[in-house]
Amino acid sequence: MNDDMLNEILENLSLIESDTAVPKNVRLKIKNTMSILLNTDDNKILNVDKSIQELSDVAEDADIPQHTRMQVWSVVSLLESK
Q1: Is the dihedral of CA 25, 75, 61, 68 positive or negative?
Q2: How far is CA 48 from CA 4, 15, 61, 64, in A?
Q3: Dihedral through CA 50, CA 56, CA 60, CA 61, nearest 10?
Q4: What is the distance, to the nearest Å, from the Cα of residue 80 to the centroid of all Cα atoms in its chain?
Q5: Mean pLDDT across the chain
Q6: What CATH code is carried by the domain that includes residue 49?
Q7: pLDDT tens across 32-61, in order?
């Protein structure tokens, strides 16, 4: 994954995290996902896979707004195209 793609993913996640319509537990998971992606100590592929799993869990949450769910799936799509 190149730096431009990572920056785009982090921007999208940051938008979700700052959305006050998103439940707090979901925002915390988004923040955790951002931390995973920024972690340079671990294998990048492993970090991407962890992030996809975390975001898949977020997308399945019944409490998130529909537009947020679409944003999450968009980020997952970007991660899968790594």
Answers
A1: positive
A2: 15, 19, 20, 22
A3: 50
A4: 12
A5: 94
A6: 1.20.1440.50
A7: 999 999 998 889 999 999 999 999 999 999
pLDDT over 80 at 62, yes or no: yes
pTM: 0.91
Q: Is the dihedral of CA 68, 71, 75, 76 positive or negative?
A: positive
Domain that holds residue 43: 3-80
Q: What are phi and psi of 63, to 5 degrees?
A: -90, -10
Query: From CA 52, how far away is CA 73, in angstroms rounded?
Result: 9
- Number of structural domains found in the chain: 1
